[in-house]
Every structure is written in structure tokens, then in C-alpha cells.
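pasting for ref
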Amino acid sequence: MPNQSPVEQLHAEYARLHDQPPSTLTADQRRSLTFYNREMESRSAGKIPDTVPRDVANWIRNVFALEAFVRCQGRMPRENRRLPEGAISAVEKQRANSVRAQRRAFAAGRLCAYQVQRLLCVPGFSFHPLENVWQATCAAYADFTAAQGGAPKLRSTDPYERALAGWAAKARLAYRSGTLSADRVETLTGLDFWTWGAPSSRD
């Protein structure tokens, strides 16, 4: 259906799965349907029923709380420990801790398909936030070189250009120290105006 939200699309997908014969379902699909069915029950009741298993109830509660936070604040909870004391409320810290727990569970392979897809429906949620930031900055670097016809300079008076140049310098340092992944080396090597040598004296 047109104009469906990501959550509505996901629920429609699992409503169809719910109608399939149980004997045709995989273990992950059965586990996923448990979370889907319990979430739908909670939505209909306006609260999480006492009959919902504790682990499922806690997960649903955390997802609902995260969505409420994002809806209210217009962003994901912050995890920046460099912010001034008191800048992050206790509620925001709880939400950030919950997000970290979900990422750890995902990395350990403990989430079923529904849990993964459901979390990705939360605006701004990512299982790999640092990788997403790196990819976005890489794309910004490519856009800059395409528009300007050259690499960004560290000595530029433009803060944005300096930030891109600083990002590139850190990538080169990681490359020289052997800590830059092969995938990133390949990506950066393919960029226009990219070099792995030491920055020139004009930068």
C-alpha cells in the first residue's frame, strides 16, 4: 500500500508470514513471529500484557521508549562522553544504553530477523553508526573534490574544508600504521585526487 511507514510495511510483511502454516516456518521465523505478535497485542491493548514473556516484554518496552524519545527529540540518544556534565539526562542515558545493548546483541547474533528489521524502522537507528559516519564523510569528500577540482586543504579558511582535510589526514595515518581496513583502502584509493603520500607543504 502507498504511503505506508516502515513499521507498517514491516507489520504487513509479518501479517502475511503469520498466515503461513507453522510447519513451513524456520526457527528464526517462529521467533520473529513471537515478537511481532506480542508487539501487536501490546499496541492493541495500549500496554504490554502481563502474559508476554519477560525478555520479549523488555525488548518491546525499550523499542517503544526509543521511538518515543526520537519522536520527542528529533534525534537518536547521544552517547558522547565529551559533553559537559549534566548535558545528557538520565532518560537519555538509559536510551543510549539500550541502543548499545541492541548493537551488542546484533553483533553476537542474538537478534531474530524481526528484531533487526524493527529496530531499523526507528529513524536514525543503525547497527554500525561509526561506519555510517565514515561512509558519509567519504561521500562528502568525493563531492568536494568533484565540485572544487582538488583535494581539501588543512590550511583552508573554510571550516568544512578543513574538517574534510583532517578526516583524510587521519585516514592516511591509519593506513601508515596498518590499522585501515582493506575495504577502506580500496574505497579511498578510488577517490579522485587521493594520494597516500605525506601531505604537501602547501596543505
